[in-house]
Write a structure and sequence with these properties.
Layout: H1 2-38, H2 47-69, H3 74-79, H4 84-92, H5 94-124
Helix pairs in contact: 1-2, 1-5, 2-5
């Protein structure tokens, strides 16, 4: 009986934990960007190369966040079928989800631009 209760509790918490994990990934993306720009934890002699390479990690964290939040957007709408709890969660927390999706998309673009042109951008400063 305890196993069934644990599964039901997990199903109830999935929506909240999905958003929390998505925001943790966004914070990791921003922290990676700041750490790379400041030069923390880099190896080698060229700081600009390290900054450019960090764009891949920034984009990766943001993509992981977007993948979690996609369940509340296209994935839920395109099928026309949604779990009632998920639909209620979307209606209740719409601003939080939209902000997370927008910030995730922005960080993917920023990470990709840094990955491509990070060494040049860094040397301009």
């Amino acid at each position: 009986m305890n196993g069934i209760k644990a599964v039901l509790l997990k199903m109830k918490m999935d929506n909240g934990w999905r958003v929390i994990r998505a925001y943790v990934y966004l914070l990791l993306s921003i922290a990676t960007l700041v750490a790379a720009y400041k030069g923390w934890f880099y190896y080698g002699s060229d700081h600009a190369d390290w900054f450019g390479r960090s764009g891949a990690v920034v984009a990766l964290w943001a993509t992981m966040s977007e993948a979690l939040l996609a369940a509340y957007g296209i994935g839920n709408i395109s099928h026309g079928i949604g779990d009632l709890k998920t639909n209620n969660y979307i209606n209740k927390h719409k601003p939080l989800i939209v902000i997370g999706q927008s910030l995730g998309a922005l960080m993917i673009v920023v990470g990709t631009m840094i990955w491509a042109y990070g060494d040049l951008l860094f040397k301009l400063n």
